[in-house]
Amino acid sequence: MKVTVTKQPKAKPDSSKLGFGKFYTDHMLVMEYERGKWGEPEIVPYAPFSIAPATNVLHYGQGIFEGAKAYKRADGSITVFRIDDNFKRMNNSARRMCMPEFDAEPVKRALFELIKLEEDWIPTGEGQALYIRPTMVADEEVLGVHASKRYKFFILLSPVGFYYANGMQPTKILVEEEYVRASIGGTGEAKCMGNYAASLIGAEKAEAAGYDQCLWLDASERKYVEEVGSMNIFFVIDKEIVTPALVGSILPGITRNSCLQVLKKYGFKDYTVSERRVSMDEIVAAYESGKLKESFGSGTAAVISPVGVIGYKGRDMLIGGGKMGEVTEYLYNTVTAIQRGMKPDDFGWVEKVK
Ligand code: COI
Questions:
Q1: Is the dihedral of CA 70, 85, 188, 166 positive or negative?
Q2: Which of 85, 297, 328, 343 could form a disulfide with 231 if both were Cys (CB 3.0 to 4.6 A apart)?
Q3: Taking a C-beta distance cutoff of 8 angstroms, is the pair 255, 232 a contact?
């Protein structure tokens, strides 16, 4: 593999001020698709791309991405979490968006070389990791509305802290009743750029009203809960831990799946676990009867984030007294312990980079 090392390494950021996705390491991985096949992955200095104004991703948004994380342990070893699942989902997204699939093995090997080259960028504090952002964009300079014949694949690395500015403090989410993020048959379950563009209006409305994020409902009835846009959502109703079933418009989150697998394998107290449709009527009824005990979001960036308030139809429902509940805390502790090597990985999720 060709590796071009930068002559101008950047100063590393202050690890107490990382935030999320504000800093990028010195190098990135790039790979080009042309004449029906992918070229070799290469490592190059992190730098702006030169891109023609007519390039189709700039007009029609044919682009997909992923989010994964690498961790450094106290003994200096480096691991990634469920990276094969990220590449598998990316190839699923590629199929939905008429983009070419890629062979994940050589890309993973190149990614590991990139991570090793950037190992001094991996932060090790609470809630910190090296965020991995694989991305694929249509790269043909043509305005006709067709699938592109050229693509650029790249992977950026970013040292990150907690996704939310308030760390593990419970977030406030507002149910969006006017706009929708995705419909069944649309692109909701693909990790494509347009889904995130479509979600911005809900996020802006929520922020303007004093919430952190918005909670999306289904497109046809505005009745069933879907996801938050940057994370999947779970509820603890009485003794049931429930998350919306993947009906086609919801991102099949890898952290969502990790939570479900952890709960199914180890169990937690006498809770049951389900994936099914959850309506806002049910959430309101559970809140009113005192059975809505907890809510939390799950995602690579968000990890497992407690939700303290759900705003719906002009009323704020305070969940668990606005404090993190026992199921949320158990899942946060268990999943992050597996990710960081503090608990045995019984699932085959953790892969050693070095
Ligand atoms: C992730 O959790 O990695 C995501 O991609 C969600 C968001 C930051 C876009």
A1: negative
A2: 297
A3: yes
Residue nearest to atom 5 of ligand 1 (CA): 67
Hey, what are 295's tokens? 């809510």
Report CA(230)–ligand 1 centroid distance (Å).
5
pLDDT tens for each residue of 139-181: 999 999 999 999 999 999 999 999 988 888 999 999 999 999 9
Q: Which stretches of 18-171 are DSSP H helices?
A: 56-60, 83-96, 104-117
Question: Residue 165: its pLDDT value, please?
Answer: 85
Residue for token digits 């991985």? 29
In this structure, the residues whose C-beta lies within 6 A of any atom of ligand 1 are 67, 196, 230, 299-302
State the DSSP code for 35.
T
Strand, helix or coil for residue 193: helix
**Cα(301) to centroid of ligand 1, in Å?**
5
Task: Report the amino acid identity of residue 41.
Answer: P
pLDDT for residue 220: 96
β-partners of residue 29 are 43, 155
Select from 234, 230, 258 the least CA-distant residue to 245: 234
Question: Is the entire prediction scored with pTM above 0.85?
Answer: yes
